[in-house]
Amino acid sequence: MAFIPHTEADVAQMLAAIGVKRIEDLFDEIPAQLRVKSLAGVPEELNEMEIGRLMSERARSDGVALSFLGAGAYEHHIPAAVWAITTRGEFYSSYTPYQAEASQGTLQLIYEFQTMIARLTGMEVSNASMYDGASAMAEAALMAVRANRKSKSARILVPTTVHPHYRRVAVVAASNQGLKFEELPYGAAEGSTPAAALAKYEGEDVTALVIQQPNFFGRLEDVDALTDWAHARGSLVIAVVNPTSLAVLKPPGEWGARGADIAVGEGQPLGVPLSSGGPYFGFMTTRMQHVRQMPGRLVGRTLDAAGHEGFTLTLQAREQHIRRARATSNICTNQGLLVTAATIYLSLMGPQGMARTAASAHARARELVAALMRVPGVRLAFAGAYFHEAVLQLDRPVAPVLKALAARGILGGLDLSAYYPELGAALLVCATETKSAADIERYRATLQDAMQAVRAA
Amino acid sequence: MSNVPADLKYTKSHEWVRTLKDGTLEIGITDHAQHALGDLVFVEVPEAGRTVKSGEPCAVVESVKAASDVYAPVAGSVTEGNARLAAEPETLNSEPYGSGWLMRLKPAPGALAKAELMPAADYQKMLDAEGG
Amino acid sequence: MRVREKVIYEYSHPGRGASDQWPHDPGQAALSDLPATLRRTRAPELPEVGELETVRHFTRLSQLNFSIDTHFYPLGSCTMKYNPRACNQYAMLPELLARHPLAPESHGQGFLACMYELQEMLKAVSGMEGVALSPMAGAHGEFAGVAMIRAYHRARGDLARNEIIVPEAAHGTNPATATMCGCVVREIPVDAQGDVVLQALKAAVGPNTAGIMLTNPSTLGVFERHIVEVARIVHEAGGLLYYDGANLNAILGKVRPGDMGFDVIHMNLHKTFSTPHGGGGPGAGAVGVGARLLPFMPIPIVGKDGERYRWLAESDLPQSIGRLSAFMGNAGVLLRAYIYMRLLGREGMRRVGEYATLNANYLLKRLQAAGFDAAYPQRRASHEFIVTLRRQARELNVTAMDFAKRLLDYGFHAPTTYFPLLVPECLLIEPTETESKDVLDAFVTAMSQIQKEAEQEPGRVTSAPHTMPVRRLDDVRAARQLDLTWKPTAQP
User: Fold this and answer.
1) Please, which pLDDT band fits residue A175 given cuts at 50, 70 and 90?
2) Which pLDDT does position A321 carry in this prediction?
3) Which domain holds residue A26?
4) Average pLDDT rounded to a whole number, residues C22-29
5) Contact residues on chain A for C244, CB-CB shorter than 8 A
6) For residue A335, which of A135, A128, A173, A166 has the smallest C-alpha distance?
7) Is the pLDDT of residue C170 over 90?
């Protein structure tokens, strides 16, 4: 029980060595009135067979639906090798590589990860990861305030086309430190951020501009113009990007004349299962000139006492265990296990596999939109190119339609009415390479029925 | 034993101050401080033109095991940060009182008189008391 | 022994790849609608390697690591206990992995039931009134906790309370978190026996006190004996008490933070509830609160209406400090903690604290008998304890770091070194309850052997390790000549 290997004889010998009679005596410094009276809220133990059965039953009851949900978490094929290796005990049950000599596997892997993420984003340096995409964006805003010394306003412009949850997380994480987030409206026709939205900030002190590409609606922003606008006015640019899309879309390092200053994003599409929202990982990259302002862990290559190469954590003096109240962030972990999965995933995919995945997801999304537009009462909300998600508008309420679809095993997308009430009955749909032509046809046919059912009701 | 040159003034937080001929102050950290920090890997110096208050953190020195703020011993405006330290932070380890200086500062009127500086003998006594 | 595994880019050949993993090529026409100005013009430089090469490379990398599955890992403050395989296997059932975070509640009653029951069990073992699961690490939980303390004072119009009191022995995250929440940190000393100096606490509290952050047992490996008095002083001054759950394993099933008077706590599920450390994450830092902070808990939380589980959102908790992650935090980690807690059950919980404490006290006594100095010899160990090698450093010029490195050669991961900062040349040793007496005895033998080496051939110890894939690494070079990404021509 409790994975405790002690025999009675062991316990007797150990107590004798300590010089006490009972285990209870070891708690004699704790005031007696504090002792636990009841743990009634914890059920009796289950053995492994019983918990296996319970979990299998619960999992079966949730089932696996045909899902067209995206909105920041994306279904992709995950090669079998990814998690077979990631869950090896040497990765799974090791800790932060503070003893570098006994952690070269984890350290080298993170170095490879940093390299791949830097190349994918077209930036110079990557950290060892953050909690998730949303927290990475919040940390990027805090970092921008440290890095942009000319700006005194701590003012961050965030288009409303940035994921609504990310915007909330940033406010929660950073507003206690005096950051001010101001939202930029999107163009109603095109669903992206127009240059006109920036006009009112002309001549004002803006610390940084956030740009999400593709944006929450799946649409492509004019990243070059937005980046150049910001740089011309002394603002930094924080890119929020989908890593799959970077195989075909211009990387943040090449946005505008000078490139973005910080690029972050959700790493989940890189070999991490959807798993109800986590664990995922956020990635963060920047230029070398800002490396000391970057939060989180960094691994560097160096030499050992014998002159051979090896890997170690570096720039640790920025971190909380040394810098305490003056640390760049209170973060002490990265999402090591997910970084392991992503590094294996990116190795198996390589440039060709990533390009095919991105192109295939894009192609499937276009097929999906084309198919659903054939359903009476469905139209595309925004004109212009999108990556693998798009906003549809229905001529009747979305919630009952989604409910009818779900009852037939299809998760039809995200109802946007709570997030963007001005869009009316709007639905964000997504398709990736995992969707077949038959899946798309099944959705179309079922949607057609569901729309009729809702009208009839 | 730490090296404590007799011609400089010192602070409790281990900065030294040298008065140059034109009245400008040259400021650095002591041999004791650089030794306690260990091999420095990064030094951030203030930009010229910055105004600092006495006791305000104005530079950062970082080794692999510690990162410390350096406090302005005297109020004034920075005339120069030692640019060499960006590329060669080790200079501060090897020549803390020479080419490892951190910044030069034009003291605000009357600031030097108000500053809490001690002569070398007192600083040495303080180090002895600390066991250094 | 020297094993060099090439950087994966060094295996790369143009045109090679694990093509069985790729979708079919949809052709260039598939991208024709994307504006050329927004397209990538050069493919990203990712390695081009075959599947077997990839599997072999990462398997070899794994073999360069120490881990709980392969080595005793007595890393103080980190609770490196066995991570039961069942927790991983049943958290990775295909339906659980496939579930989208925004999937409707109708398609997640099984998952939500696990989350709800986890909240309930954590309430029971912590003695708190409410639990929120979304913080993604201990430090994230700390952030949520201090943010709730601030929100509480603000909601009462008590705007001056912005000071957080932290004992000098605290984890570095505590002051870092307080700063992130816009608070000012006041450090107070601890006495020679490791307890908070009550006079200093009394002098520190006042109308600006937002709260105090405490770890109990403290980072010094001893139980704060004045905890009831500390709680009274802080509460009477109008502040709240924050419990850093880093050391919860020491008292699990024996004493509950809620009963000690804490108003808010975080629990490191990757420590006490045995979810994997994963080479440095993911963690999970669930927060528990007393009645006063219930309205401020971070969302989402799982609620139950009759037999149906549902997400509680901002409309249910209008005073919530808000959302901390894009979705539900580290849900898969939470599932592992749930499975672990169900496997242990009520009686198992009690045994964790007992046997963690037994192992620590036994190991401490054995090391003392072998001639090592305890930092707090008058005190009981909690689930961990501190040995100080100040004497060895002075007399033999062999430091705690040298002992730590030499332990690697003996097949043991090193204890935590140079933390807490208060104790010179320290090793913070936490064996956990899942280690057998045999392993603890072998560790004592290794420490004695290293002591002998330190006396007879100190160079052997000060130049350790000798059997790892690399020798000691040049950290100064790493920081001065930053090499953070691989480049085709780069020589280290």
Assistant:
1) confident
2) 60
3) 8-55
4) 92
5) none
6) A128
7) no
User: Can you tell me the mean pLDDT for A104-117?
Assistant: 98
Question: Same domain, yes or no, for A100 and A239?
Answer: yes
**Max CA-CA distance within chain C?**
77
Contacts of B65 in chain A (CB under 8 A): 317, 322
Chain B residue numbers with beta carbons less than 8 Å from the beta carbon of C475 are 64
Q: pLDDT band for C2, please (50, 70, 90 cuts).
A: low
Residue A309 has pLDDT above 80, yes or no: yes
Tokens (6 digits) for A225: 């113009």
Residues A228, A97, single domain; the answer is yes
Question: Cβ contacts (< 8 Å) between B39 and chain C: which residues?
Answer: 476
Task: Give the residue from chain A lying closest to C35, CA to CA.
Answer: A385
* In a shared domain, residues A204 and A339: yes
CATH number of A255's domain = 3.40.640.10
Q: If interface means Cβ-Cβ distance under 8 Å, which residues of chain A face chain B?
A: 292, 314, 316-318, 322-323, 326
Q: Report how far Cα C187 is from the mean position of its chain's Cα atoms.
A: 23
Nearest CA of chain C to the CA of B89: how many Å?
8
Phi and psi dihedrals of B128, rounded to 5?
-60, -40
Return the pLDDT at A326. 65
The answer as to whether A403 is a domain residue is: yes
The answer to whether C124 contacts A40, with C-beta atoms less than 8 Å apart, is: yes
Q: Do residues C369 and C303 share a domain? A: no
Task: Tell me how many domains chain A contains.
Answer: 3
pLDDT tens for A421-435 read: 999 999 999 999 999
CATH code for the domain of B36: 2.40.50.100
B28 to chain A, closest Cα gap in Å: 21
Residue whose tokens read 């339609």: A401
Tokens 């350096």, located at residue: B70
Q: Is C476 on the interface with B (CB under 8 A)?
A: yes
Does A243 score more than 60 pLDDT? Answer: yes
Q: Are A317 and B67 inside 8 Å of each other by CB?
A: yes
The domain tally of chain B equals: 1
Is the Cβ of A395 closer than 8 Å to some Cβ of chain C? no
Count, in order, helices (H) and strands (E) of chain A: 12, 15
* Nearest residue of A to residue C38, measured between CA atoms: A250
List phi, psi (to 5°) of C485. -140, 150
CB contact under 8 A, B42 and C476: no
Q: In one letter, which amino acid is A167?
A: R
C292 and C381 co-located in one domain: no
Please compute the mean of the pLDDT values over residues C132-139 and round it to a whole number.
95
For residues C138 and C51, state if they share a domain.
no
**Which of B125-129, C237-241, C328-332 bottoms out in mean pLDDT, i.e. has the lowest?**
B125-129
The answer to whether A74 contacts chain C (CB < 8 Å) is no
Of the candidates B63, B64, B67, the beta carbon closest to that of A323 is on B67
Per the CB < 8 Å rule, is C280 touching A88?
Answer: no
Domain span holding position C20? 8-62
Res. A457: pLDDT tops 60: no
Q: Which residues of C touch B89 (CB under 8 A)?
A: 480
Q: Which residues contact A412 (CB under 8 A, 6 or more apart)?
A: A68, A401, A402, A405, A406, A427, A429, A443, A447, A450
Asked, for residue C373, whether it belongs to a domain, the answer is yes
In a domain, B132, yes or no: no
Question: What does the pLDDT look like over C26-74, one tens digit per residue?
Answer: 988 999 999 999 999 999 999 999 999 999 999 999 999 999 999 999 9
Q: Cα distance from B62 to chain A (closest Cα, Å)?
A: 7
Which is nearest to C172 in space by CA: A271, A440, A316? A316
Residue whose C-alpha is closest to residue C142's, from A281, A173, A284: A173
CA distances from A424 to A149, A242, A396, A418 (A): 42, 27, 9, 10
Q: Mean pLDDT over residues A12-21, rounded?
A: 98
Query: What CATH number is associated with residue C251?
Result: 3.40.640.10
Q: How many domains does chain C have?
A: 3
